[in-house]
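seq as requested:
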Amino acid sequence: MSFQYKKVLIAGAAMLLAGAAQAQSAGSNIVSLGWFRVMPTGSADPLTLDSVNGVPFGQPQPGTGAKVESADTLGLAFTHFFTDNIAGEIVAGIPPKHDITGQGSFAQYGKLGSVRQWSPAVLVQYHFFDATTKLRPYVGIGVNYTWFTAAQVTNQSFVTGTYGPGASISASAKSSWNPVFNIGANYAITDKWFVGLSVSYLPLSTTATFTTQRGPVTIVSHTKIKLDPVVTYLNVGYRF
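struct tokens:
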């Protein structure tokens, strides 16, 4: 390798790692907008029949199951640097709509329904290197509150095949507090503008309850769903 080529590589590395004066220093605020991809990694336990017209059963239905599919949505984050390295971040977004597909004996029905997931989070992050570094990786930890809306079973073939003709189902899911583990990096394009990518993991589960009405008969059942989503956030940020 020639001496001149080595100088070019060294200069390129220096330009990548240094620049944007005080881009992420104490007192800085960054607003970012971008794309969330929410990728659940778990699945549901077998459906359990809880009661029929108030008479308790507590009977699992072996071989039944469901899976929450991945979804995309628009995200927004606000970050404040308390020091050159320590920052707090609030993250939210338009709630993604997840399709729910059958597994096991329910796999034949394909998509069973859908649900919207609300998951705002608050994190504390440690950003490596100094405030003038263009490329700054970070790690973070925080807390999230998740709740669900618009839970619905839309596949009438599934409802009829499972509970009989004329049956209808309403659904709900339990909300919960969860920890959030986060890694990522920001790259300063200028002193004001950034691009960023982060990956978060939430050990998240919920209990979905289903109330089925078939004529005068009311059937209540439930399943525990492990979502454990991995969430990526590709964004553009502005410092002020």
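The chain is about 10% helix and 60% strand.
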